[in-house]
Amino acid sequence: LNCVVEGYPQPETPTLRRGSTNFTLNCSGVNIKTCTAGFSSSDYSYSGQYSCSTKNTIDNHEKSSSATLQINVYSQTDVTMTTTPPPGSRTYYLTGDPLTITC
Fold first, then answer.
1. How far apart, in whole angstroms, are the C-alpha atoms of residue 56 and residue 52?
2. pLDDT, tens digit (0-9, with 9 covering 90-100), for 21-33
3. Is the pTM of this model over 0.70?
Protein backbone atom coordinates (compact mmCIF):
# COMPACT_ATOMS: atom_id res chain seq x y z
CA LEU A 1 0.00 0.00 0.00
CA ASN A 2 1.33 3.43 -0.87
CA CYS A 3 0.36 6.65 0.86
CA VAL A 4 1.74 9.82 -0.75
CA VAL A 5 1.51 13.14 1.11
CA GLU A 6 2.57 16.59 0.00
CA GLY A 7 2.46 19.90 1.83
CA TYR A 8 4.15 22.99 3.13
CA PRO A 9 5.23 23.12 5.80
CA GLN A 10 6.30 19.52 5.72
CA PRO A 11 3.39 17.31 6.83
CA GLU A 12 3.70 14.86 9.66
CA THR A 13 4.51 11.28 8.81
CA PRO A 14 1.15 9.80 7.80
CA THR A 15 -0.59 7.09 9.73
CA LEU A 16 -2.15 4.04 8.15
CA ARG A 17 -4.80 2.23 10.13
CA ARG A 18 -7.57 -0.30 9.82
CA GLY A 19 -10.02 0.15 12.65
CA SER A 20 -7.89 0.56 15.77
CA THR A 21 -4.84 -1.20 14.24
CA ASN A 22 -1.95 1.02 13.14
CA PHE A 23 0.53 -0.17 10.52
CA THR A 24 4.15 0.89 10.22
CA LEU A 25 4.94 2.99 7.16
CA ASN A 26 8.37 3.30 5.56
CA CYS A 27 8.67 6.84 4.17
CA SER A 28 11.05 8.68 1.87
CA GLY A 29 11.08 12.28 0.64
CA VAL A 30 10.79 15.68 2.30
CA ASN A 31 7.91 17.90 1.14
CA ILE A 32 6.50 15.04 -0.90
CA LYS A 33 6.57 11.88 1.18
CA THR A 34 5.97 8.49 -0.35
CA CYS A 35 5.15 6.01 2.37
CA THR A 36 4.71 2.29 1.90
CA ALA A 37 3.27 -0.49 4.02
CA GLY A 38 3.82 -4.04 2.83
CA PHE A 39 2.45 -7.37 3.87
CA SER A 40 4.54 -10.48 3.32
CA SER A 41 1.47 -12.55 2.52
CA SER A 42 -2.20 -11.77 2.44
CA ASP A 43 -4.99 -13.60 4.13
CA TYR A 44 -8.57 -12.85 5.13
CA SER A 45 -7.44 -10.89 8.18
CA TYR A 46 -6.13 -8.08 5.93
CA SER A 47 -9.58 -7.41 4.48
CA GLY A 48 -11.11 -4.13 5.57
CA GLN A 49 -11.15 -0.39 5.16
CA TYR A 50 -7.78 1.33 5.50
CA SER A 51 -7.30 5.01 6.20
CA CYS A 52 -4.15 7.03 5.53
CA SER A 53 -4.08 10.44 7.23
CA THR A 54 -1.66 13.25 7.98
CA LYS A 55 -1.64 16.86 9.11
CA ASN A 56 0.56 19.92 9.21
CA THR A 57 0.46 23.03 11.34
CA ILE A 58 1.48 26.64 10.74
CA ASP A 59 0.83 29.50 13.18
CA ASN A 60 -1.51 27.34 15.27
CA HIS A 61 -3.61 26.51 12.17
CA GLU A 62 -3.87 22.81 11.54
CA LYS A 63 -4.77 21.23 8.23
CA SER A 64 -5.42 17.53 7.93
CA SER A 65 -6.14 15.20 5.05
CA SER A 66 -7.03 11.56 4.70
CA ALA A 67 -7.85 8.94 2.10
CA THR A 68 -9.51 5.56 2.46
CA LEU A 69 -9.10 2.29 0.63
CA GLN A 70 -11.17 -0.89 0.86
CA ILE A 71 -9.22 -4.13 0.53
CA ASN A 72 -10.95 -7.47 0.11
CA VAL A 73 -8.89 -10.64 0.22
CA TYR A 74 -10.54 -13.58 -1.48
CA SER A 75 -9.59 -17.22 -1.56
CA GLN A 76 -8.31 -18.65 -4.79
CA THR A 77 -9.62 -22.16 -5.05
CA ASP A 78 -8.41 -24.85 -7.36
CA VAL A 79 -10.32 -28.07 -7.72
CA THR A 80 -9.26 -30.89 -9.99
CA MET A 81 -11.38 -33.94 -10.55
CA THR A 82 -10.15 -37.08 -12.26
CA THR A 83 -12.59 -39.80 -13.07
CA THR A 84 -12.14 -43.45 -13.92
CA PRO A 85 -13.02 -44.21 -16.66
CA PRO A 86 -11.97 -40.94 -18.33
CA PRO A 87 -14.72 -38.45 -19.25
CA GLY A 88 -16.18 -39.08 -22.68
CA SER A 89 -15.46 -42.80 -22.71
CA ARG A 90 -18.31 -45.25 -22.62
CA THR A 91 -18.45 -48.15 -20.29
CA TYR A 92 -21.40 -50.50 -20.34
CA TYR A 93 -22.76 -52.34 -17.34
CA LEU A 94 -25.41 -54.96 -17.17
CA THR A 95 -28.15 -54.82 -14.62
CA GLY A 96 -26.86 -56.38 -11.42
CA ASP A 97 -23.15 -55.85 -12.23
CA PRO A 98 -21.15 -54.06 -9.53
CA LEU A 99 -20.46 -50.42 -10.34
CA THR A 100 -17.58 -48.41 -8.91
CA ILE A 101 -17.02 -44.73 -9.65
CA THR A 102 -13.66 -43.31 -8.62
CA CYS A 103 -13.21 -39.55 -8.30
1. 14
2. 888 888 888 778 8
3. no
